[in-house]
Amino acid sequence: GNSVTQMEGPVTLSEEAFLTINCTYTATGYPSLFWYVQYPGEGLQLLLKATKADDKGSNKGFEATYRKETTSFHLEKGSVQVSDSAVYFCALSGSNAGNMLTFGGGTRLMVKP
Amino acid sequence: EAGVAQSPRYKIIEKRQSVAFWCNPISGHATLYWYQQILGQGPKLLIQFQNNGVVDDSQLPKDRFSAERLKGVDSTLKIQPAKLEDSAVYLCASSPLGTNTEAFFGQGTRLTVV
């Protein structure tokens, strides 16, 4: 079946540091890949997505590239801000799974001023 | 545009009691999902509807959980009887028809079973 593995947190960084959150997946077919973010007290929001190999999703300074050869979709940001503190979830939607999302366990990011 | 609405936001019940959660998806979204998010874990799909039909309920514990979406719009998820391990946040999401479409999530209902 489909599964997503992401690095455990919490990840603690200083403001303006470089961020990488690793995500790898197992899936049949050609899944779409997503990063969702959950800010404190709020619901899950889509951060970015990529629907085919070598696609790069980007939003709010975050980027992730769909790497089929390494089955990875690592999230990166060049310079984090305190306001980026949140829990980040990597997810996939299988091509034969009716758009249902399979999530990783989440990674908490804490950015200190 | 209004987002996905869920109620209540919080619920505390004793084990063996019953509880129901309500979700109103974004207008026009044919697909509705219920996810269970246990503390410290990622959300896990319980059931997916397309209009008023069930697409996937393979991970729904049917001996105690039930869900319906009678008119293809809002939905209710019920637990009867509740167990301690049902303590979690129950998330509702909706999306339009089509592949790779974005799912929009509500704020969830936090259930505590004591």
Q: What features would you describe in this structure?
A:
The complex is a heterodimer of chains A (113) and B (114). By secondary structure, chain A is mainly beta. Chain A is built from no helices and twelve strands. In chain A, a hairpin with a 2-residue loop joins strand 7 and strand 8 (62-65). Chain A starts with a strand and ends with a strand. The model of chain A has no long low-confidence stretch (mean pLDDT 93). Chain B is mainly beta and 114 residues long. In chain B, strand 4 and strand 5 (44-50) form a beta hairpin. Chain A binds chain B through residues 4, 32, 36, 42-46, 49, 51, 89, 91, 93, 95, 97-106, and chain B through 3-4, 31, 33, 35, 40-45, 48, 50, 55-56, 91, 93, 95, 99-108.
Q: How is this fold's topology laid out?
A:
The complex is a heterodimer of chains A (113) and B (114).
Chain A: E1 3-6, E2 11-14, E3 19-21, E4 23-26, E5 32-38, E6 44-50, E7 56-59, E8 62-65, E9 75-77, E10 86-93, E11 101-103, E12 107-112
Parallel strand pairs in A: 2-12
Antiparallel strand pairs in A: 1-4, 3-9, 5-6, 5-10, 7-8, 8-9, 10-11, 10-12
Chain B: E1 5-7, E2 10-13, E3 19-24, E4 31-37, E5 44-50, E6 53-56, E7 65-68, E8 75-79, E9 88-95, E10 104-105, E11 109-113
Parallel strand pairs in B: 2-11
Antiparallel strand pairs in B: 1-3, 3-8, 4-5, 4-9, 5-6, 7-8, 9-10, 9-11
Summarize the structure.
With 113 residues, chain A is an all-beta fold. In chain A, 0% of the residues lie in helices and 50% in strands. The interface between A and B is medium-sized, with 24 and 28 residues.
